[in-house]
Amino acid sequence: MTPVLQFTDKGIYCPGGDFYIDPWQPVPRAVITHAHSDHARLGNQHYLCHLESVPLLQLRLGADISVQGIAYGETLRYNGVSISLHPAGHIIGSAQVRVQQGNEVWVVSGDYKVENDGLSGQFEPVPCQVFITESTFGLPIYNWQPQAMIFSDIRKWIYENQQAGKSSVLLAYSLGKAQRLLFNLKDLDTPIFAHGAIDVPHQVLLAQGYDLPAIQRITPDTPKADLKKSVIIAPPSAAGTPWMRRFNPYALGICSGWMQVRGSMRRRNADAGFALSDHADWSGLLQSVKATGAEKVFTTHGFSSAFARYLQENGIEAEAIKTAFGNEDEEAPQEAGTATAAVDPTPDNGTAAAPAAGESE
């Protein structure tokens, strides 16, 4: 019997419905889990995604793309195959894709996290026979503190920097992580400035009505005096560039799950590291797999081989699959390789994604 979904050189393909999920080569019909560029690529003839992802796809791929948005839980049918989208909690508009053919259900997770960040929604386990899961942080060393604790640490760090006469520069990926920071720091009694790569999606989301704070975009005309003791949010690609000089004196903080590994902060010449990730940690991955009740699990991008092996050793049929997905939203995949120096094995897809358009400002 032909499986409901197949892994091909173009992406995850549904033969019965004749569509692909997050394809990495151009195809006629693409179902997109979220708007990060390793999952949503240019060149497809038609896109299907969650309603909240539509403006983000148009921002990143062009306003003239053919795109349809549907709500969570809404069902479409293609040639007898049912498709529905379900909350992934990764970033705004992120979704898991449920595909049903006959009595068989497969779910593609995309990227996800299980803690509700207050902005991206609550991850929803979807019962299925086969679950295709990310495994970006699929090693036991990756276990996140509650978000409230992390943001308490960030606020304390900002205050200490101000007392020392320094600005606080936080590096966070421009789509997802930056909005999470802004949403959870909106009560700060401190001006917040942002790199243009942060401001562009911010303005799109403000226009959609999201409860995000006002920020000031940094331009060549921004007075240096205005930046003193302020908070600046910038993409990781800004680190070490001449653009940063205007903030002196400043302290540099990196917001990434890779900061969980001892030494990551030092290797990246940062003053502080905050293990704030938009991906599930080890316990979140295990919790999610168990909640689906899946009989078979395919693991993709990240520590997929290690995670699949652990599932196998614990009585769950599992297989690691090579894909073209990466860790674009973490912007530090090289740290995964660093982490394995002590714990092995290496991640399966550790190539660095290119910065999104506008991040070179």
Automatic annotation (TrEMBL):
It comes from Chitinophaga rupis. It comes from the Bacteria. NCBIfam families: Xnuc_lig_assoc. This is Putative mRNA 3-end processing factor. The lineage of its organism: Bacteria, Pseudomonadati, Bacteroidota, Chitinophagia, Chitinophagales. GO terms for molecular function: RNA endonuclease activity. Residues 325-361 are annotated as: Disordered. InterPro entries: MBL, RibonucZ/Hydroxyglut_hydro, Xnuc_lig_assoc. Transmembrane segments: none annotated.
